[in-house]
Amino acid sequence: MCEFAATAAQSVSQCGQRCGEGSVTGMEKLNVITGVGVPLRRSNVDTDQIIPAVFLKRVSKSGFEDALFYAWRRDPAFALNQKEYASGQILVTGSDFGIGSSREHAVWALHDYGFRVVIAPRFADIFYGNAAKNGVLAAIMPQESIELLWKLLEEEPGRSITVDLQERTATCGDVTLPFDVDDYTRWRLMNGFDDIDLTLQHEEDITAFEKRRAERFPFKPKTIPARHLPSEPITSAREEQDNWPGPLSARA
Amino acid sequence: MGTTLAEKVWADHLVRQGQDGAPDLIYIDLQLMHEVTSPQAFEGLRAAHRQLRRPELTIATEDHNTPTVNIDMPIADKTSALQISTLESNCKEFGVRLHALGDADQGIVHQVGPQLGLTQPGMTVVCGDSHTSTHGAFGALAFGIGTSEVEHVMATQTLSLKPFKTMAINVEGDLPAGVTAKDIVLAIIAKIGTGGGQGHVIEYRGKAIHQLSMEARMTICNMSIEAGARAGMISPDQITYDYLKGRPHAPEGEMWDRAVEYWKTLQTDDDAVFDKEVTLNAEELAPFVTWGTNPGQGLPINAQVPVPERITDESKRRAAASAIAYMGLQPGMSIKDIPVDTVFIGSCTNGRIEDLRAAASVMKGRHKAKSIHRVLVVPASSRVRLQAESEGLDKVFEAFGAEWRNAGCSMCLGMNPDKMVPGERAISTSNRNFEGRQGKGSRTHLASPLVAAATAVRGTISSPTDL
After folding, report:
1. Residue B337: which CATH number?
2. Is the pTM of this model over 0.90?
3. B85 domain-assigned
4. What is the widest separation between alpha-carbon atoms in chain B?
5. Chains A, B: CB contacts under 8 A, how many?
6. Is B104 in contact with A232 (CB distance < 8 Å)?
7. Distance between CA A18 and CA A36 in Å, rounded?
8. Of these four, B64, B162, B270, B374, which has the most CB atoms within 10 Å of its CB?
9. Total domains, chain B
């Protein structure tokens, strides 16, 4: 049995003692999912496009569905504005999806809208990690497979894709394509395990490390107590008013 | 075989090695926090009845939502005000040190760590913010994380991670006059693309890199994420030690000597092998400006906007055509013929004292062009603002017709009132030119403080040599 499978067995039994029935956390399990595939023919979809900064001011973790692709959804031609794609659960998109800001709100927005899987040739690292922590699969497929899925989904809008995490395949009609996902992420998604619970099983290792750290690196900084910080008054800037006739582009 | 700088720092933080494909458990020396990506993490901690494991390795500040005017008045935007008051109550409840608006050490989180001397060589530094890569300038392994990981660090002071791949970017030779750190990093991103560093920690190496000041190194490491890298690092040297010496949290006396002794070991071994290696000649570099809607779509300032039909790669052609349409440009036009409305000098990329001095050196004795709507100068932190005022830079900005503001992220992402209207075009010293980044429908050209200031003088994209 590999290490993390053993950890899993332990995790479930520990949780059984601690919180009675059920899994370690509430993260939804993902095994096989069939849902409407949505083609998004774009590469470099950054997290500012997935959810603009103006929606990051909330202190809650849900209710971001309307913010998803906010600017693009003002365009009637955008895929999610077509009734066939509106109930999409599986997004098929171009390379370098999720670049830019680390905002986990991007995954929350996709998830709240109903997406459980995003398929792309390559993902930004932070997005990839964030997805797995929210029960969303980021599946990696070569560009040729993506092109084929785009073609199938555009030929017959509203078509379903079946994603099988156990088999690591996506099936659309009679076409079955393999995708990549690393073993650990796949295992966590299939079991809905939470990272913090898994890590806290290694409490003794953490404590032992902290002891070694204090001996070897006594010079590492601590934020508390704060050290000799002078308090100085900061003056407040004031806004300047002008009669701006608007952007040059609008005047040309 | 030897090891790289990144691998050495990783090894010194290994709590537990993962086996059979499981990730390693890595200890985190410092978690930085701001108001945007922390509330849901605190809420998760509270819901699970967990404590913050190491409040003394945690520090918070307010930056994304903070207004840059009227900071002595209540924040008008109710949701921004709530997010800030939530950070304040969370810090109080969990015992986290907070530099709130109005404090001399308030400012962009990636300036606050270094200016306090909290960011030191060989540390692991995280923040729920992709520009955490900035701290790698000190030879720290520093990277942005999502809110779930913020909560994970709060609860365990560790992260569960697979080792990153390593990438060397060698910048050889001497940098020509008028070419800055910003130009180097924009040229790197244009060369390797927004996904070129994916999965890697970049180590910036070579003569041109080690000649740079700490602030310039921070500019380069800051934008590592724009090349898709997890982190960017520069091995510490005398310039690093000199920057740190005497800062509030730098070690003192015997501890300083012990620290420097350790820091000196943080060098990539001569026989270490990187997974990927890229080399640039600094002598061939020129001031760089972006024309498109991702940071990889940039060119030397004397170049022309690309003609999509001439791009062979289909995906790149499509991306260029869409970017040119969004940006309202003509294919083939000279970059220098692009007129801008607004000039933004600030952000965690270029809002430090050296950046403000560079801008002021161009603005001194001049006035902004009539066609320029506004020139916002926003220091990265309140401490930088005080420093600039002590040097009289504020007077230069005001005489030029620029607005001298309070510290924060400001127009880089427009979470506060500093944003653009649809169709408004800026030259910006920030880090992202994504569609709508600086306000819905806004158009952004990324450049150095020197280019931004020269553009403010002429009204069209310019470098100081055009004046």
Report:
1. 3.30.499.10
2. yes
3. yes
4. 65
5. 283
6. yes
7. 39
8. B64
9. 2
